[in-house]
Amino acid sequence: MNQLEENIDSAANYVKYQKLQKGFAELENAQTVALVPAFNEEPRLASVLEVIVSSSQIHKTIVIDDGSRDNTAQVAAGYPVEVLRLAANKGKGAALQAGLALAPGASYYLFLDADLLNFRHEHISALLEPLQDNEKVAMSVGVFRSGQKKSVNLAQHYFSILNGQRGLRRSFVEILPNLDWSRFGVEILLSRYAGLAGLEVAQPALQGISHVTKEEKLGFVRGFDYRLQMFRECLFALYNYKKMIRRYPGNTPTQVLAKISENNFGTQ
Asked: Given Cys at both, which of 35, 64, 231, 243 links 95, Cβ 3.0 to 4.6 Å?
């Protein structure tokens, strides 16, 4: 090898070294923000926050108190988290939208419910790993497996699109439509929107996890009524998400809006 070839080889190795070092720096500086929307979750929030704040994988946590009438905000204030209090209940979609506005530029975002049962660090890892291992994955949607409640397991098997435990890559968050209108339909909106944008979604299993049902929180009658409200909001999102994205596009790219127009609204 002559001197010129040695210099070229050295330069190439230096470039590779620089790229490697940049990769390590990006990994070290990667920030994960957890968003926890909560409405009247005073009795349940603490156990979820205990896991989140003790996780080395989460660098910032924001609890969005969505107009609670109990001491949800006070419970959250007892932990090293940021608490955002909304004056009135605006729904889960608007709560997440408000939380995202407080944490621009994070590498990853975790959406976590405030009423989880048997929530562990391994569930955080399961949501983040698909994003960290494959740059093509824009969102991970957790699927409950082998939880302590058969009704929840069954619902997860057939309606996993409704699961609120999600990981989102920054590049996906940066092109999201406005979520304010979606209320309990926010998960349907996120999943359908990812499909419209042609983005890859992973569905990691979350073993042993579950959540408190609405009937357990409110009693059978009030809980069942609240569940019906949730179903109505989910159905509205399912059948109207394209129309609502056009009305409230947020950061939706023009090519995605064009695709919606071609499909004449409706469901996908």
From this structure: 64
